[in-house]
Amino acid sequence: MSRVIVTGRVPEEAVRRLEAEHDVDAWTGRDPMGREELLQRVAGVDAVLSLLTERIDEELLEAAGPQLKVVANAAVGYDNVDVPACAARGVVATNTPGVLTAATADLALSLILMTTRRLGEGERIIRSGQPWKWGMMFLLGSGLQGKTLGVVGMGGIGQATARRARAFGMDVVYHSRSEIDPQTAEELEARRLGLDELLASADVVSLHCPYGPETQHLMGAEQFAAMKPSAYLVNTARGPVVDEQALVAALEEGQIAGAGLDVYEHEPEVHPGLLERDDVVLLPHLGSATLETRTAMATLAAENVLAVLRGEQPPTPIRQR
Predict the structure, then answer these.
(1) Is 285 one of the annotated active-site residues of the chain?
(2) Which of 10, 116, 210, 296 is the most exposed, fewest CB within 10 Å of its CB?
């Protein structure tokens, strides 16, 4: 029987599947496991089921030992996992693509609606007890019909967001490393543009690109200056894709109309300049936060662990480009 560690709280179904075949050390604390405790508890394990809050690097791999066979990251992103270091040690690294596509796209569209219709402002007025009354010019937002959504990163989540935006009457342009398949492009009536052209033409820019060295601060001062003053930024990808200091400056200078963020550059810290603004909607990384989605993520990660420990090919190994 192999030893498996689950580094954070996950739905019980995933733990039960692992326990049916292996000895499982499942963290049950409300807060993530501390780094020092993780380095101690990982010693001698055959498998790690990790969350995006854990850094899977040389130090952790060394602490685990040479018997480690698999790191199963319960997330679609894997910027917290040193995949080359895993490969060098013969450790299989996996992630959970696909299962969180719909939930994250739903949240992206929610942020689009909240920012363009000023829903966060309206809710805060009600909760604060401020006096208010209906008026023709009260909290006027912007409609989506006939507007252009610019999707940066046209993978599964980007495409799902574009489909939802089309249902609201938006046109779609996108920037991505490669062309999407012709059938999808025709369905969405989506045009591929360079990033500069997309920023200049989009009424809403929605980020869905993976995070890595090439996308660090992809959205910075130059990019915000290229956007329309009436445009909005939405980020459900990874926080460091956006230079938050540059975003605050762009908002202060009126270079863009607002932003909706679910992820942050120094998460869980949020730039104080964003906290003060009514034209920004801030959510605490809820992209995949439905019971159904988180259960699917955890169970897929568990299935990856089980497959590798059986000597089989895992369902979703990480395939770096």
Answers:
(1) yes
(2) 210
